[in-house]
Amino acid sequence: MESRCSDAFEHEEWNDYYEQGRTDELIKKLEDQYPCDILRYKMGEDGHYLYTVMKKSRGGNSRGMVTDVPREAIAYYDKPYTSDMHLPTAFRHPIGIPEDMLPEAWKNVDQ
Fold first, then answer.
1. What is the pLDDT at residue 52?
2. What is the DSSP string of 73-95?
């Protein structure tokens, strides 16, 4: 897994998006995610976790530390070619369903 962080929580619109549960929309709108390493966390006064992260450049070099990053500003992604669908033993066969098992409404109609 790879973590990506966003500085969107420092944006003036963050609280509005946060209250509506739409922080991911603001992060996408601002397009400001960067690779990061999570160093530690603590419980904030409002009961939510806040993280200390190390910003990284695309090449993996450290760019600086950011404190009090809310959980909503952190996303996790699979590293390329590491998900289960890339396993050599992954199941990749078509699953056939007999025509008589499908309702007529689901079948293609000749036009």
1. 94
2. GEEEEPPTT-SGGGSTT------
